[in-house]
Write a structure and sequence with these properties.
Layout lengths: L2 E3 L6 E3 L1 E4 L8 H13 L4 E3 L8 H9 L8 E6 L1 E2 L7 E6 L5 E6 L3 H15 L4 E6 L8 H13 L3 E7 L3 H10 L6 E5 L11 H8 L2 E5 L29 H22 L3 H10 L6 E5 L3 H9 L7 H12 L10 H22 L1
C-alpha cells in the first residue's frame, strides 16, 4: 500500500482509507472482521466520526484496533451535535423512541473539546491522528474553532487538524486561521462529481493542503451496481444518480469509458474508478467503505493499478461529457426549475429596459 503525507503535518496515511460509516445491518463481530481485513491489506488509515451511528461506530472501531493502535491512523471529526440546540440544522432523524431530533452544526470551542474527549473514550486511545471539522458552522468564528484544535494539538490529544465539506471561501478562511498549518480537506469527489477540480483543487495545491475524497464510488453507482437489473432497493434509490434516466447515462459511461480499461487490467469497475482517483496528482487519499473482507481487499488492490495516460484521459473525457439531472424522477422539480429560469429572464429583461 502506498502512503502519503497529510499536507504540512508529520502524519502519513495509507492512500486508500477505510471508511467506517456504512456497515448496514452487520453484526459487531462482522464489522470488526472487516476492519482487521483492512489493516491486514495495508489500509492502515480509518475514517470515522462521532456522528456515525451516533457514537456506536467509533466504539466498534475502538474494539477492532485494540492491541493494534500503533499500526493505525485514526481520522475523526468534530462539530456535529444531536444533544444541543446551538447551530443550524444539518438534518433531522427519529431516535429509538420515535422522537424527531436534529443534528446541528456546532463548532464552539467547548463543543469541540467535548467531541474530542468523547471520541478518545469511545476509540480507546489517548490521541487522534487527524481531527476535522465535520461541517462548517457559520454561527461561530472559525478562528476560534481552529485555535481550539491547535490547543488540542499542543496537549497531545490530536496530531493534525483538517476540515470537511467546506466551500472554497470557507477553506481559504480555515487555511488563514491555521497559519498555513491545515493538514487536510475532506470532500465529496468522484468521476460524477468533479466540480472541486475547478476551485478547491487549485486552492489546496497553492497552500499544500491534502485532499481526501469521500464517496469515491458514489454509493456504488461507479462500481457498476446500476448495471444490475434490480438496481438498488435501499435508501440509495433517492440519490439522483440512481434514478432511471441518470442510471442509463451512467451505465453508458461505465461501459464505454471504464469497462474496456477494467477488462485490459483484469480488475473490476470499482477498482478502476478508485485507481483513476488515485492517479489525480492533487488527491492524497480516497475513503472507501466495505461490507466484507473481500471488498476491502479489492479496494486496497486498487492502489496497485497503474493506468496509462491515454486510459486516464479516455476515462476522464467520457465522464466529463456525462450530465446528471438532479430533478430526474421528480417532474415537479423540473417544472419549478423552468418557472424559476423564466422568472429570472423576465427580471433580466426588466433591468435592461
Amino acid at each position: 500500500m502506498t502512503r502519503a503525507r497529510l499536507g504540512p503535518s508529520e502524519i502519513e496515511i495509507s492512500r486508500v482509507i477505510f471508511g467506517s460509516m456504512g456497515h448496514g445491518d452487520a453484526s459487531d463481530s462482522e464489522r470488526i472482521r472487516v476492519v482487521h481485513a483492512a489493516l491486514d491489506a495495508g489500509v492502515s488509515s480509518i475514517d470515522t466520526a462521532p456522528l456515525y451511528g451516533f457514537g456506536e461506530v467509533e466504539r466498534i472501531v475502538g474494539r477492532a484496533i485494540r492491541g493494534r493502535r500503533g499500526r493505525v491512523e485514526l481520522l475523526s471529526k468534530v462539530g456535529l451535535r444531536w444533544d444541543d440546540d446551538h447551530g443550524a440544522v444539518l438534518f433531522h432523524f427519529s431516535d429509538a423512541a420515535g422522537t424527531r431530533r436534529a443534528v446541528r452544526r456546532d463548532s464552539r470551542p467547548a463543543s469541540i473539546r467535548d467531541d474530542v474527549e468523547a471520541s478518545l473514550r469511545r476509540l480507546g486511545t489517548d490521541y487522534l491522528d487527524l481531527c476535522q471539522i465535520h461541517h462548517p458552522d457559520e454561527q461561530v468564528d472559525l478562528a476560534d474553532s481552529i485555535a481550539t484544535l491547535e490547543e488540542l494539538v499542543c496537549e497531545g490529544k490530536i496530531r493534525g487538524i483538517g476540515v470537511s465539506n467546506f466551500t472554497p471561501p470557507q477553506l481559504a478562511r480555515a487555511i488563514a486561521a491555521s497559519g498555513g498549518r491545515l493538514a487536510s480537506d475532506q470532500l465529496e469527489y468522484n468521476l460524477l462529481k468533479r466540480g472541486p477540480e475547478r476551485d478547491i483543487f487549485p486552492l489546496a495545491r497553492e497552500h499544500g493542503v491534502a485532499l481526501l475524497a469521500y464517496s469515491p464510488l458514489d454509493a456504488g453507482s461507479l462500481a457498476g451496481r446500476l448495471l444490475q437489473s434490480n438496481a438498488i432497493q435501499d435508501g440509495r434509490g433517492r440519490r439522483a444518480s440512481f434514478r432511471p434516466a441518470n442510471a442509463r447515462a451512467i451505465n453508458a459511461a461505465l461501459l464505454e469509458g471504464l469497462e474496456p480499461v477494467a477488462r485490459a487490467h483484469d480488475v473490476s469497475l470499482a477498482q478502476v474508478s478508485l485507481a483513476w482517483l488515485l492517479h489525480q496528482p492533487d488527491l492524497t487519499g480516497v475513503i472507501a467503505g466495505a461490507r466484507c473482507p473481500d471488498q476491502v481487499r479489492d479496494n486496497a488492490r486498487a492502489a496497485e493499478i497503474v493506468l496509462r495516460e491515454d486510459e486516464l484521459n479516455a476515462i476522464g473525457s467520457r465522464f466529463a461529457r456525462l450530465r446528471i439531472d438532479p430533478a430526474a424522477g421528480f417532474p415537479w422539480r423540473a417544472r419549478a426549475r423552468r418557472l424559476l429560469a423564466r422568472a429570472r429572464r423576465k427580471l433580466t429583461r426588466g433591468r435592461r429596459s
